[in-house]
Amino acid sequence: MGFFAHFGRYLLMLKSMFSKPENARMYWKEFMRQCNDIGIGSLGIVAIISFFMGAVSTVQTAYQLVSPIIPQATIAQIVRDTVILEFAPTLICIVLAGVVGSKIASELGNMRVSEQIDALEIMGINTRSYLIFPKIAAAMVTIPMLVIIAAVVGIVGGRIAGTLAGIISHTDYDKGLLQNFKQYNVFVAVMKAYAFAFVISTIPSYFGYFVEGGALEIGKASTRAVVVSCIALLCMDYLVSSLLLQ
Amino acid sequence: MIEIKDLTKGFGDKTVIKGVSATFKSGQCNLIIGTSGSGKTVLMKCLVGLFEPDSGSIIYDGRNFTEMDEHERKQLRQQIGMLFQGSALFDSQTVQQNVMFPLDMFTDWSYKQKLKKVNETLERVNLKDANKKFPAEISGGMKKRVGIARAIVLQPKFLFCDEPNSGLDPQTSLLIDHLIHEITKEYKITTVVNTHDMNSVMEIGDHILYMYQGEKQWEGTNREIIYSKNKLLNDFIFASEFLQDAKQMRMIEIEKGEK
User: Fold this and answer.
1) Which of A53, A144, A243, B19 has the fewest Cβ atoms within 10 Å of its own Cβ atom?
2) Whether the predicted model's global pTM rises above the 0.90 cut
3) Which of B210, B202, B208 is nearest to B250 (CA)?
């Protein structure tokens, strides 16, 4: 199957997702389950990665800022903007593409191979709507939240690392955080998070839903889903940055 | 009742179902038999709407399934239950949740009412004390029974079973066969069973459709099958000496009964 055939089928999958739910309560239940899986399930790894991301950013920025005429508070400014604009949305979403993406693809792939999707279809349930839509909706709700949490934890991580290593005092760090702060950067980060959440949920859903074969194909689909999601995510990163950071 | 008229289905250049016509009556166990690759599964998937036939029609109680829009199909599908070859139970749900799923989706009953119905259905398939177990924790035979319970919990008019005996020992196979037969008679539903298990053919086959290379080769009852002169059917059904002996024994039994 060529690129355009895949892309066409992907668009048709998204289109057919929108139909009247058979039972809104069941869809809500599934949505909440997905919010728990994607959001709460990824919270630990997001917190750990963000903390160290902020810590390493502080240490490396301080290492490169050797000029005595540059105030120490500048380190905090650089860490803040890098974490908010790039590290929190992009790096965290690449990690989530691996964690959440592979889970979505393998879950749907397993359901397809073991005929669970067919069983739902025969019951008269629109499986694209019942299985895929709650995943996308949950990703769109929880991933921007995770990105905001990642940004906060990253900045706190930088503060702790900077203080512990004796690079910068917390007074200077806090001062730097408030200097030239642009709320617009947070808006850009959230916009990126929404775009990435869509990519992270829809591409693995597509690869998982259309798996054909057995266990081996589920593994392949899962890997392909993560690779394609990461590439799409980086393209989207460039696109959103170009559009919003003129 | 399900009527199939001149049904054809192909994939690419290959025609898998070639103009099959048949009638499956209600209150009967209708068996589709045939060698692997004869088109049984494709025929069943066409019947339940998982595959779209290329031509022909499928009529459920006078309603043409092939001409129905999505909404009408959804309505009809709520009257269809299906037992899959691998049971197709939802891994992340317990036995109780699996059986309750169709009730959760299509009824507005209270939890108490649903639980009562689930317990009654599980009892009907002779499965007790398994409510809280997950599919991974139960045996193949139990999985089939949960699959049957899930398929009949909404009291469908049509029941489809795809290879219900696959992977089961002969004794459990027989139990599953009898369960399907009893449910068919009790609820007066139209049951279509896809199998190549000869025990099932002789035990529960009220009406048998033999498929060979995508075509209907023979049609009749399990009594008629004994006297059939169709070579392909005989080669398939009574493939071993043991089965040929069993055929002779059955013929003697029938003749004795008639006298």
Assistant:
1) A243
2) no
3) B202
